[in-house]
Design goal:
- With 818 residues, the chain is an alpha+beta fold.
- The strands form 6 sheets. It has a 6-stranded antiparallel beta sheet with strand order 13-12-11-16-15-14, with helices on both faces. A 5-stranded antiparallel beta sheet has the order 2-1-5-4-3.
- Helix 13 runs parallel beside helix 14, helix 14 packs antiparallel against helix 15 and helix 17 packs antiparallel against helix 18.
C-alpha cells in the first residue's frame, strides 16, 4: 500500500491516553508507536485547548476540525481531524481519531471523476435534462433499463422515451422543479417494453445549477424498486387474506372469500373444490392419509366457490354445488395424490391435455388462453379438505416459485378457517339434533291453557345455547309452564339442558310448589357442578360457570283453571308478561331469586289470579337482551309487540319474534305463550264428608248422581269403585276433615283430600289378606293416580277416561313454526 493511500489513525481512551498508533500517524508526526502509546494525547498538541472545550468534547458523538500538532522534530503540523466517540461495541469507550495524509487527495480532475461516476453508476438510472427538458446525458444503467442508447435518447423529452401516462406525469413533475427550484420525489409503476410484469421505480428529481447558482436543468435519479414493490404486494395480499378470509363460520362463504382475495390481485381465475362430504366428514386422525383416488386415478370434488376477472365467470364449466371428476394427469389430481402444491408455470393452451375430465374444461383452457396454473391442497390439522386452483390468462406473466409460496400461505390460512367452519357446522348440527330430541315438538292437550311456542337457535360463533321450555300437565287439571336457560353454548349446554328439563318434569310429577321445586333444582345443579369437577371435565368454561353458581336460570309457574290462580317462582330468570283480554300488557312482580347453583338462598312463590283469556308470556333473555339493546329497551319492544292484535297465538309468536329481538340475536330464544282457560263451575263439585265408614255408600251415590247430571253415565261404575277406595282409605288411615271433589274436563278427575301428610303407597296383598288391594285397584282402573301435598294435608287423585265427545275440549294450537 502506497503512502498516499494511508490515513493517519490513532485511538485515545476516555482518560486521554493514546492506545493505538498507525503507520499513517507515524508518517504524519514522526513518532513510532512505541514512543506514543501510553502517553497523554495532549503531549502531541502544539496549542492550548480550554477545559470548557474538553468538557463539551466528551458529550459529542463525533467531532471534526483543524488542530495544530507538534512533530517529533519540533515543528508544528496543521492537521484536519475527524474523531469518532466509540461507545457501542464491546470494547471500552474511546476516541478514534483520523486524518488524511498530506498528498493523499485525488490527482484526477474531480469533474472527470464525477462524469465517470455518473455513467458507471450500477445502482440507479441517471438522466440529465436541460432547461427545455431535453435529455442531454444518461448513464449505462438508464440505457439498459430503457433499452436505448444515450445517442438514441439525446434530445428527446422524458415523456417521449416511453409512451406511457406515468412518463407524462414525471415530466410534469420535472417542469415543477424548473419552476420552483425545489426537488421532488416520485414513484411510478410502469410496464416497460420487453418486460412481462409491471416495474416500480422511485425517482428523485433535483435542480441542476451552474457555478453561479443559475438553474440550468433537471437531474433524474431512478432506483429500481420492482422487487420491493412485488414483495409489498405479496405482503399486502397476505394481510388482506388474514382480514377477509374466515369472517364467518360458513364453509361456502369462507371458500368464496379465498377466491375473492386471489382474484384479481393474484390470479385471473380461481376455483375452490372440496371433497363432496367434507362438511359432514369427521376429522381424520393426526397425520391421516390423503383421500384416495378412484380406480382410474381420478378424484371427485365438489365446486364450492370460484371467481374471475371476466364478467359472469366465463371460464367456469361448473357451478357451485356441482360435483365433477378430475383426471389423473390434471394438476388437481396430482396435487391431491401427492399432498403437495403443483406449479405449471408455463404451457401452451392449444396442447394442454391435463384438463380432461369434463367435456368443457379443455375447451375453456384453449378458448381463454390459460397459460399458467397452480393447484394447492387445502390441508388443515393433518387431513385434506380439497384443492384451490389458480389460473392466469389475462396477465402475460406466468406464476413463479414465489407466487407458489404465496399461494400456499394464503391457502393454508383459508384451510384452517374452512376446517373451523366445518367443525362448527358439525357441532351446531349435533347440538340442534340434541335439542330437537330434548325439547317438546308439540305441547300436550289439556284444559288449563291454550299454548303456542317458538324456539329460535342462534347463528353466532358461540353456537347453539341451552334454552328450554316445557308445558307439564299436573293433577287437578292444573298445568306447569317452565322456561329456562343454561349458561354456555354447544353440545354440553344442550346436554345439561336435557338433564335439567328431565329433573323439572320429575319434580313436577310429585306436585311440589314452585319455590320447593326450584330449591331441589338448585341442589341438582350444585351436584352436577361437583360431579363435573370430579370427573376430569372441570377444565371447561362450562364447568367453571356451573361451579361459580351461574349455571342456569329458570322460571316455574303453575296455573289452576279451577281457581284461576297462577303460582310463580323465579331463579334469576326474566319475569313473565301478562296480557289482559283487553290488550293491556304488564309484567308480574315476581321476586328475583338467585340463579341455580348458588345454594343456600331461598326462592319465593308469588300467586296472582288471572282472568280467563289472559295471556301468560314466558321467554328467555335472548329475546329482550343483547349487545345491541339493553334489557329495558327489549322489554319495551316486547310490551309493544304483545299489545298488537293477533288472530291466533301462533301469529302473536311470529309478531314477537319479528319485532322484539335484534337482527342478529347473540343467544337462543325460547318463547312460550299460554292463554288461560277456566273450568266451567258446573263441571266442578265438592263435598265435605265425615270420618264415618257409613259415608262411603253415600259418596258412591253422590258420584253416580253427579255423573248422571253430567251425562257421562258410562264412567259411573269405575268412578264408584275408585271413590269408594279413596274415601275408605281416608277414613281408615287419615285425619279429618275429608273432602271429595269431582272435575269433568277432557277426563274425569276424582280427588279425596284429608288433613294427614302421610302418603299412601302400593303394596302387594297376600292371597288370604282381607285388605291392601285398594290402591292397586285404583291404579289399574285409572289413567293415572297420585298424591300431592299442601299446607293442610294431602290430596289423593285419580284420573278416569271419558268416552263422551262432549267431554273433549277442542284441540289447542301447539305447532312450532320456524
Amino acid at each position: 500500500m502506497s503512502g498516499d493511500s494511508l490515513t493517519a489513525r490513532a485511538a485515545v481512551d476516555e482518560h486521554g491516553v493514546i492506545i493505538e498508533w498507525s503507520e499513517g500517524a507515524r508518517r504524519l508526526l514522526g513518532y513510532s508507536s512505541a514512543k506514543v502509546i501510553g502517553r497523554p494525547a495532549a503531549d502531541l498538541l502544539d496549542e492550548e485547548i480550554s477545559a470548557e472545550a474538553m468538557r463539551r468534547l466528551r458529550t459529542l458523538p463525533r467531532w471534526t476540525g483543524t488542530v495544530r500538532l507538534r512533530h517529533q522534530d519540533g515543528h508544528g503540523v496543521e492537521a484536519r481531524l475527524l474523531a469518532h466517540h466509540q461507545r457501542e461495541d464491546d470494547s471500552a469507550p474511546h476516541w478514534l481519531v483520523l486524518s488524511p495524509l498530506a498528498g493523499s487527495g485525488a490527482a484526477e480532475d474531480p469533474k472527470e471523476l464525477a462524469a465517470w461516476s455518473f455513467y458507471q453508476a450500477s445502482c440507479c438510472s441517471m438522466h440529465a435534462y436541460d432547461a427545455d427538458l431535453r435529455l442531454r446525458q444518461a448513464n449505462h444503467y438508464a440505457e439498459r433499463a430503457l433499452n436505448l442508447t444515450e445517442a438514441e435518447m439525446r434530445g428527446l423529452r422524458h415523456a417521449e422515451l416511453v409512451v406511457h401516462p406515468e412518463f407524462d406525469r414525471v415530466e410534469q413533475c420535472m417542469a415543477r422543479v424548473l419552476e420552483t427550484g425545489e426537488p421532488q420525489d416520485v414513484e411510478v409503476r410502469v410496464q416497460v417494453a420487453g418486460e412481462i410484469r409491471k416495474q416500480a421505480w422511485s425517482l428523485s428529481l433535483y435542480p441542476i445549477r451552474d457555478e453561479g447558482g443559475e438553474l440550468r436543468g433537471v437531474g433524474l435519479s431512478a432506483h429500481d424498486m420492482t422487487e420491493q414493490y412485488w414483495a409489498q404486494k405479496r405482503l399486502q395480499l397476505l394481510n388482506d387474506a388474514g382480514a377477509r378470509i374466515g369472517s364467518t363460520l360458513s364453509v361456502a362463504r369462507t371458500a368464496q372469500e379465498l377466491a375473492d382475495v386471489a382474484v384479481p390481485e393474484f390470479a385471473d381465475f380461481a376455483t375452490i373444490d372440496l371433497l363432496p362430504d367434507v362438511e359432514r366428514a369427521e376429522a381424520a386422525p393426526s397425520g391421516g392419509a390423503m383421500p384416495g383416488p378412484t380406480a382410474e386415478g381420478s378424484f371427485v370434488l365438489r365446486r364450492v366457490a370460484q371467481q374471475s376477472v371476466l364478467p359472469g365467470i366465463a371460464e367456469a364449466v361448473l357451478r357451485p354445488g356441482e360435483v365433477d371428476g378430475y383426471a389423473a394427469n390434471s394438476p388437481t389430481a396430482e396435487c391431491l395424490a401427492t399432498g403437495r402444491a403443483v406449479l405449471h408455470a408455463e404451457f401452451a393452451p392449444d396442447s394442454a391435455d391435463w384438463s380432461v375430465g369434463h367435456p368443457g374444461r379443455e375447451e375453456s383452457v384453449r378458448a381463454f388462453g390459460i397459460h399458467s396454473a397452480m393447484a394447492v391442497p387445502l390441508t388443515a390439522r393433518g387431513h385434506t379438505l380439497g384443492v384451490a386452483v389458480f389460473l392466469r390468462h389475462e396477465r402475460p406473466e406466468s406464476f413463479s416459485e414465489g407466487d407458489l409460496l404465496l399461494a400456499e400461505e394464503i391457502t393454508a390460512r383459508a384451510a384452517v378457517c374452512i376446517d373451523n367452519a366445518r367443525r362448527y357446522t358439525r357441532e351446531r348440527e349435533t347440538a340442534l339434533a340434541l335439542q330437537r330430541a330434548l325439547l317438546p315438538q308439540r305441547l300436550p292437550v289439556q284444559p288449563a291453557v291454550e299454548a303456542a311456542f317458538r324456539y329460535l337457535p342462534t347463528d353466532t360463533l358461540a353456537g347453539v345455547g341451552g334454552d328450554w321450555f316445557d308445558l307439564i300437565p299436573l293433577s287437578g287439571a292444573r298445568v306447569a309452564l317452565v322456561v329456562g336457560d343454561v349458561v354456555g353454548h354447544g353440545v354440553q349446554a344442550s346436554a345439561i339442558m336435557g338433564r335439567l328439563r328431565t329433573a323439572v318434569r320429575t319434580l313436577a310429577d310429585i306436585d311440589l310448589p314452585p319455590d320447593e321445586l326450584l330449591t331441589h333444582l338448585d341442589d341438582l345443579v350444585i351436584r352436577l357442578s361437583a360431579d363435573t369437577d370430579m370427573d376430569g371435565a372441570s377444565h371447561s368454561d362450562q364447568a367453571a360457570e356451573m361451579a361459580a353458581g351461574l349455571g342456569a336460570t329458570c322460571l316455574y309457574a303453575v296455573y289452576d283453571p279451577v281457581s284461576r290462580v297462577c303460582a310463580v317462582a323465579s331463579a334469576g330468570h326474566p319475569v313473565p308478561a301478562v296480557v289482559s283480554s283487553g290488550g293491556a300488557v304488564d309484567f308480574l312482580d315476581v321476586p328475583a331469586g338467585p340463579p341455580l347453583g348458588l345454594g343456600g338462598l331461598p326462592f319465593e312463590t308469588t300467586e296472582v289470579t288471572l282472568p280467563e283469556g289472559s295471556l301468560l308470556v314466558l321467554y328467555t333473555d335472548g329475546l329482550v337482551e343483547s349487545r345491541e339493546q339493553d334489557i329495558d329497551e327489549g322489554t319495551a319492544r316486547l310490551r309493544s309487540a304483545l299489545a298488537s292484535p293477533a288472530t291466533s297465538l301462533d301469529d302473536l309468536c311470529d309478531t314477537v319474534l319479528a319485532r322484539v329481538p335484534p337482527e342478529h340475536p347473540a343467544d337462543d330464544i325460547a318463547l312460550l305463550i299460554a292463554r288461560t282457560q277456566a273450568l266451567d263451575p258446573r263441571h266442578v263439585v265438592t263435598w265435605g264428608l265425615p270420618a264415618d265408614p257409613a259415608v262411603v255408600a253415600r259418596a258412591r251415590k253422590l258420584v253416580t248422581a253427579q255423573l248422571d247430571a253430567w251425562n257421562v253415565q258410562e264412567a259411573s261404575f269405575v268412578a264408584e269403585l275408585v271413590v269408594s277406595e279413596l274415601v275408605t282409605n281416608a277414613i281408615r288411615h287419615a285425619e279429618p276433615p275429608i273432602e271429595l271433589r269431582l272435575l269433568k274436563g277432557r277426563h274425569l278427575i276424582c280427588e279425596v283430600s284429608d288433613a294427614s301428610s302421610t302418603a299412601p303407597h302400593l303394596r302387594r296383598a297376600r292371597t288370604y289378606d282381607e285388605g291392601g288391594r285398594g290402591l292397586l285397584l285404583v291404579a289399574q282402573l285409572s289413567r293415572g293416580w297420585g298424591t300431592r301435598h299442601n299446607g293442610t294435608g294431602k290430596t289423593i287423585w285419580a284420573e278416569l277416561a271419558l268416552d263422551s265427545p262432549e267431554s273433549s275440549p277442542p284441540a289447542t294450537s301447539t305447532q312450532n313454526r320456524p
